[in-house]
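QA checklist item 7 of 12: single-chain prediction sanity check.
[x] sequence parsed
[x] length recorded as 125
[x] structure emitted
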Amino acid sequence: MIFFRHTLDLSRELARDTRWQEEVMRNVKALEEEVDKLDEKYNAAMKRVANQESNIAEHAMKRRRTMSTAPSDSDSVKKRTSVSERVKRNRRHAVFVPPLAADALLPREVPTSSSPVSGHVYFER
């Protein structure tokens, strides 16, 4: 009888070990699936990053081409600039100075008789 008890104890222990092994294998499979999903997300993100980097590089090259000198007709070479750069280059900035502070700036005064605002308007380049 002692032999049978020992055999029963071993079989129970083996059954516990088998259940534990099955549980471990299920957990390992779940972890492998999660790793695969994360790997797919990582690959998709890296593709997006590469695409964004190529778009940035392409945009920079287009901007460089616009800014550089390029031959337009046969002999003449013209510099192409964007509209915002021409506006910046040609714009005058008007600065309103209150009447008390305007007295110190009289040499650069520009008459503004038609101005609806009291004070003096000065132009800076």
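[x] summary fact logged: Residues 2-90 form one domain.
[ ] second reviewer sign-off
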